[in-house]
């Protein structure tokens, strides 16, 4: 089994699935249940259910594309094969802009759990986030790698801990439930909250960049998506119910570290400290993994001429160190903006989730273009239709920002080097 860097014979199914789960699970599991609960009350659980339904056909689309076009190009490669280099450039720009807000959001979540672990106030959350980003830059630049075996063990331990928290909250929580869970109002409120929690269901598009690390990508990639989806969805719903069963929406710091609050309410301070420490480790692993993927995207974009050529250079460890540092600087700017009150964690994660939803819509369009079978095109149309529904609940400002990223990437696409594309069997 290979290392995380891709050296060796390649990741097997277990290692690849573990890597996918640790990339996807992060702030989605440890902070968004609190944010959604504060915004939607007990209807928040429906936001998780609806988001899981919306992303299901998208995973079928990604699985099909990943089988046909395996390799490190990922989502941008799919759009390039379907619509050409300018569409790929627009996609890469949207991805880069999204990672530049999404990954700092994960780091901020980790920073608040880190502050709780060492007994500091939430005011030190931004400092903890900067520390996490700095650690990711240092480790990635020096070529530190997580082996497939270590990744699998870490994934298993973290899943056990999160499932324990979820079950304890669901079975032992005594918080009042004033709203009927199955009322029409609860369903409508839950649907409106999809944009808030959708970021939790992102990360599989980043997993598509890792298929070049697999020993058998054509066989394993669809299984990796299916298994990780089932595990992640079940965990999210359980964690949402645990928060709603244990806490009230007015709970202080609910939108910063809800899992710690759940364990504190059930078992006291010692248990909450353990959860905070565990959450810090999970989010640090998520920052490391996502930063690694983001730096490779920046390197790929620089190699194609979309970004400055210097960002494609690698050091003696074979690491694109300039791309890693550039990503770290961009993440630090967003964290600094949060620390001075310009932007909240909720708005950061919400903006990233909305961008990812648009990215998934582009994937459906690429799937429709590349594959002409009736079933393939039906999946693409159903996926695009479902993903378009939450767009009506989005703020126009966030959509304008996404449109600006796409437009600038399309305009810059003329700078990219042309290359031959692999043919896809139709």
From TrEMBL:
It is found in: Cell membrane. The keyword Aminoacyl-tRNA synthetase does not apply. It is a multi-pass membrane protein. The chain crosses the membrane at residues 12-37, 43-62, 94-118, 124-141, 153-175, 187-209, 221-243, 263-289, 319-337, 343-362, 374-393. Coiled coil: none annotated. Gene3D superfamilies: Amino acid/polyamine transporter I. Keywords: Cell membrane, Membrane, Transmembrane, Transmembrane helix. InterPro entries: AA/rel_permease1, APC_superfamily. PANTHER family: AMINO ACID TRANSPORTER-RELATED, L-METHIONINE_BRANCHED-CHAIN AMINO ACID EXPORTER YJEH. This is Amino acid permease. It comes from Streptomyces macrosporus.
């Amino acid at each position: 089994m290979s290392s995380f860097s891709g050296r060796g014979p390649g990741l097997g199914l277990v290692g690849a699935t573990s890597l996918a789960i640790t990339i996807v699970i992060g702030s989605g599991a440890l902070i968004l249940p609190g944010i959604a609960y504060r915004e939607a009350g007990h209807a928040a659980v429906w936001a998780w259910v609806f988001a899981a339904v919306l992303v299901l056909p998208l995973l079928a689309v990604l699985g099909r594309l990943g089988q046909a076009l395996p390799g490190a190009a990922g989502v941008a490669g799919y759009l390039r094969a379907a619509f050409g280099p300018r569409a790929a450039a627009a996609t890469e720009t949207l991805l880069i802009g999204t990672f530049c807000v999404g990954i700092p959001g994960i780091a901020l979540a980790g920073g608040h759990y880190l502050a709780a672990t060492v007994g500091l106030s939430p005011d030190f959350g931004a400092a903890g986030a900067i520390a996490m980003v700095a650690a990711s830059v240092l480790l990635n630049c020096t070529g530190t790698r997580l082996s497939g075996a270590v990744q699998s063990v870490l994934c298993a331990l973290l899943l056990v801990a999160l499932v324990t928290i979820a079950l304890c909250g669901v079975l032992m929580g005594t918080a009042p439930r004033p709203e009927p869970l199955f009322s029409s109002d609860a369903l409508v409120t839950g649907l409106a909250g999809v944009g808030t929690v959708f970021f939790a269901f992102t990360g599989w598009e980043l997993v598509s960049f890792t298929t070049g690390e697999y020993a058998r990508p054509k066989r394993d990639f669809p299984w990796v998506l299916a298994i990780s989806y089932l595990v992640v969805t079940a965990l999210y719903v359980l964690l949402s119910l645990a928060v709603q069963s244990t806490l009230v929406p007015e709970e202080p710091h609910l939108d910063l570290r809800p899992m710690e609050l759940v364990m504190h309410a059930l078992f006291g301070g010692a248990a909450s400290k353990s959860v905070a420490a565990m959450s810090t480790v999970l989010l640090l692993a998520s920052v490391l993994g996502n930063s690694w993927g983001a730096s490779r995207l920046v390197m790929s974009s620089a190699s194609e001429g979309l970004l400055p050529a210097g960002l494609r250079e690698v050091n003696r460890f074979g690491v694109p160190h300039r791309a890693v540092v550039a990503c770290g600087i961009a993440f630090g700017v967003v964290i600094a903006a949060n620390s001075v009150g310009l932007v909240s964690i909720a708005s950061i994660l919400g903006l990233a989730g909305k961008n990812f939803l648009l990215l998934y819509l582009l994937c459906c369009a690429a799937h429709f273009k590349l594959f002409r079978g009736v079933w393939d095109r039906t999946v693409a149309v159903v996926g695009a239709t479902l993903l378009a529904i939450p767009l009506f609940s989005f703020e126009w400002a966030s959509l304008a920002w996404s449109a600006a990223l796409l437009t600038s990437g399309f305009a810059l696409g003329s700078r990219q080097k042309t290359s031959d594309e692999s043919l896809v069997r139709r």
